[in-house]
Specification:
Elements (H helix, E strand, L loop, with lengths): L3 E13 L4 E12 L7 E4 L5 E8 L2 E2 L2 E3 L9 H6 L2 H17 L2 E4 L22 E11 L6 E2 L11 E3 L19 E8 L4 E5 L2 E7 L5 E8 L5 H6 L4 H12 L11 E5 L1
Parallel strand pairs: 1-11
Antiparallel strand pairs: 1-2, 2-8, 3-7, 4-5, 4-8, 6-7, 9-10, 10-15, 11-14, 12-15, 13-14
Amino acid sequence: MAGIDLLRQSVQLNVDLDDAIIKGQTTMVVSVLNIDVAKTLYLNARRHVLISSIHINGHAAKFELADPLEVVSSTKDFTELKLDSFENELIGRFKQADQGELTVAIPEAAFTNTDAAPKPAKGEPKGTRLLVEVVFGVHTTSPGVTMPKNSAGRVTACYSSGEAKDWLPCMQATRQRVPWSFKLVVPNRENMVAIASGELQSKTTTADGQHILFHYELGQETQTDEIEDSQQDSETKQQLEEDQDVRLMVSAWSVGFFVGPG
């Protein structure tokens, strides 16, 4: 998306195996190079992703989800189109889908409340930062998730099995490689595990004892001020900065999750 870059993304999924429900919230930090022309944010998400609300820097944003690949052409149009015309229509719709199925109008007030977005980390590009918060659910018919059942018809596991935009609002372009944070809230059952892209940071039981929260991080940067305030010697600080520069960052194409018996 010209002029708008994804800087980092965090995801929380609440996976209810008993009722076969996935509810989530994702937060994206994006950088806008020219606020005078940036009126619209395009995200990738198919109709199986049920959008509840979107806020940008704390302001509610209007949005519309329309997948140009759902119906390439009606039967009548298809029979009347010549092959080259049909091909051009198909290519055009693929380009539209790549840009983003989820169109979000950026509220003007979002640009006057930039304090809501996190401070820039070392190496991040210049630009006005926007904090984009999306609350969503995932329909059980989504091709992006698989929920196997046992002989009694009970869902025993849940895992991603398709494109990220089939279960997560995101910027799926391969050039949008960023650090990720995943939190998976799952039932507190014996042998229950939750795995997401990245390294496991913590595993905690919720206050009611009914759920377990698994926290994963992938490519998250060490904050610059933490490095500068460190009491370590200069050699250690240099190593921290080098580690930050070479951290692993991936696009939405490379992320996924699994919840089930371990």
